[in-house]
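Feature request disguised as a bug report, sorry. It would help if multi-protein outputs had a clear separator. Right now it looks like this:
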Amino acid sequence: MAAPGSVELERNRNAADTSGRILPRADDSVHSPPRVVVRRAGVWQRSLERAHRYGFPLLALVRRDFQIRYGQTVIGLGWAVLQPLVLLLLYTVVFSVILQLKFRAQDTTGHFALYLMSGMFPFLALSEGVQRASSSLKENQSLLYNVRFPAEVVPIVPVVSATVTEVIGLTLLTIFAALFGVSLSVWITFLPFLIGMRIIATLGVAWLVSVLNVFFTDLGQLLGLVLTSLMFLTPIFYPVEMVPESLSWALTVNPLHHLVEAYRAVILEAQSPLLMLPYLVVWSIGLMALGLVFFRKAIEPAKDFL
């Protein structure tokens, strides 16, 4: 009787082909499907992939936008500084020197221009970003037919360009505030966060109007009226104390009002904006999520209308 080892060796020899390789037996597990190991990308890897996909096209388009706007001028990017500077000087002379208006009873006449511009700069950035984004898809429709190009980037470009002007204007405003005797506090460090919330909210509206303007061509004209109405319904030219009690609900549901008050709190009043932050975060993230979801669902049908 043969030993078990010799029987197994003989079976392996009989299974060998002419090339000397051992053929698998019918009862081996080679017939089972191969195991495929899929390694999911980590958070950092996905973040880098998104940055590569969106970052480089965005930077290229923003650079092109500034070249188109300032490339053919004599002082170039100097206009990005000169425009908010002239605006500040003009409002200061008209409202503080000529009209001698006071924003509040305890303020001096010089503070009116500061309060006015601390509300105007975020509104102007919002208004410019939204209005220019409304026509961005029509102006860059050739990019949309490139399947590898992320269409979401196109409405972001005017928002980023407007933010550059806003940051320059707020820097000049802070310098003017110091010249008028306004003491800065530690709350000024919240200003970048407030600018970020303004950017997020503007992006949401920009994605919405950029697609809607493809289907409804009158939206561009209507948008100017809506933004103008929003400016006068927000306490930018007047203090919030002047709003009648019966209309206080309108301020509560107006996110721009909370944004403007937060800007003024950290720049001019040395006060905490923490009470307004939850409201701003909810509004900003909500608008961005709504705009992005709508944009992604409507962009393909919109391409057929371009």
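(second protein starts here, but nothing in the output says so)
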Amino acid sequence: MPVNGGTISTDWDGGQITVEPTEPTYAGSIQDFWVETEIEDEHLVLPAGEVYARDGDRLTYQSWDQMTKKNKRISATQTRFDEYESITFESSDEKVAKVYPDGRIAHISNGEVIISAVSQRGASSQCLVLKDESINYVESFVGGIMNSARKDATDAVMDRIDGKTPAVAMPIFSTQDHSTPTYTRNTNCWAADLDLTPISPWNSHNSYRRAGVLISPCHILCAAHYPIDDDSTIRFIDASNNVITRTMETMIVHPDYDEPSPDYDIAIGVLNNDVPAGIGHVKILPDDWEDYLPTNGTDIPILTTDDKEEAIVRDLSDLSLDSRAYYDGSSNPIRSPFKGSIWIGDSGNPVFMILDGQLVLLCVHTFPNGGWAVHETIADINQMMTDLGGGYQLTEFDLSNYINFGDQ
């Protein structure tokens, strides 16, 4: 941790933090505290302040054991956050560390200190060991070491949104008239230089709802619980704002999907003809993605969309928990204003990691904060595409240009 002119540089599972001290020098932040509820085995996350160094990196002091037990599906408990509006912090020894009202912790001297968060329901505490030029608990990193997939994916979002105004930079289209139809791509969109043509903005089944994304020139992936009917017209918009229409010939759901269960929430449809060259299709992560993203992608910023066709930024919390990808609004002060609003009507909208300037599909929305991970179901999806016909299979993104942590 940065102390009195010292610095920290540490890499772990593909993430790296390099922090220079600021004034005052902060030792970190108690970001998440766990409090037992009446519901057995359930934990709530109490929001608290965060500390940011000059380079924007986030430090969270929390033990690895606690981190691995974290309930990634936070949305189910978010409605209870109102019970914890008032949170105060206490330090057991202000000669070692002082804690500020927003949860920031200033390292005063070396030693052990207990930091407590006190709410209306009780208190939760953490014991920190503060030492010069050392760090004991690191939960997440922003950035990543050079030549890592994490760094490329993080920079792809951060470099594009930096200095932009969300109201101007989030809309994908500056004009979007479904009735005419007229679509004009927004040149001020932070993602305007990416190929967004695989994303369908409209279909005759449910207008701007029931979204889908092309995974081949003639296959579209949707949410199984929110599919597009056969014989529906589907629109795609090329980079020159030309409207391309196709007809959904047949859509099938994953053979293991059993509504209302959210498991295997994937549907694949085949179009009547291939889209032209001006409409792209997205890639997916390969089977060995964990060798390149060994921390399950935690805290990597991602791109997703909603029924308004906005370019939304969320942060990954996990790439494969229960075979799902999970994500939520970022607490990073640069990314947070771009978090948008995702609700039940946005099901089927795609979620992407940006690698080498390309969209890599992770899932489509099942929940506002998660969906079935396509990279966990590659063989099944390829078989569905074969059953539908068309002659295509999924295109896997080549990660070999990045550091392979499985070889280390």
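Even a blank line would do. Unrelated, but nice: The chain has two domains: 8-141, 143-408.
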